[in-house]
Hints:
- By secondary structure, the protein is mostly helical.
- It has helices at residues 2-35, 41-66, 76-92, 100-118.
- The protein is 81% helix and 0% strand.
Amino acid sequence: MKERKRKFISIIKIEMEDLIEDLNDLVDDYKEKKEKDLITKYVFMENLALIQHEMYGIRKFSEIIGTLNLDDYKDIEEISNHIKDILEKKIAIADFASCLFPMISRRIVKTSKYVKEYL
């Protein structure tokens, strides 16, 4: 069980890296649109600021879950619930962008299901 819990957190962290890559691709797309005058500099800067705030939250969330003592949790479900609670609290205090909850929660649920079924 300990190995499964460790793998669960490792996969979640990989998912967070993937999210950041997706957001970097979105920044590139916005840059291209700005260069083609499809969006204004103002819109570009607003979008960039939002994406950077989202990336900050993803990175911090990944750091937080990396510090968890997995021995404190009986199973993956308990870890999953706890890290979703952490995410909700960080959003509530406006440290993280609110759009992160569904983005990250889906990955937590998907990873939890994968680890339970296949590992």
